[in-house]
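Retro notes
What went well: the complex prediction finally ran end to end.
Inputs used:
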Amino acid sequence: MSEETLSFQNFNDTDDIISSYYTGSSNETNKLQKTKKKGGRKFTEIWKYIKRGKKISSGNYEGTCNYCDEFWVVAKPLKLKLHLAKDCLKCLEEITQIFINKLAKDEIQDNENL
Ligand SMILES: [Zn+2]
């Protein structure tokens, strides 16, 4: 008997949560789209694969490969991409492939000197 009361209460709670979730979620979506438009620097993607270390100077960081532990005093994104595309012996083949494709396309143009 008391169990039934309990589950009935639970049901009401859930209902409340769901309706506030829906109201909140449309706001969230708007926010997300605004943030997206600002755009980011695309190089940040590299830090999924490379551990970012100390900041050296504006925009320059130390880096360590997540897979083979190679270390760079100045981890320039292009160097890192080349490493993952060609030099890294331990990263997954699909990751190598991602960076080979990136380098083969336009991304090599945002070249900083190697
Ligand atoms: Zn590596």
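What we learned: The chain has a mean pLDDT of 74.
What to try next: split runs per interface for comparison.
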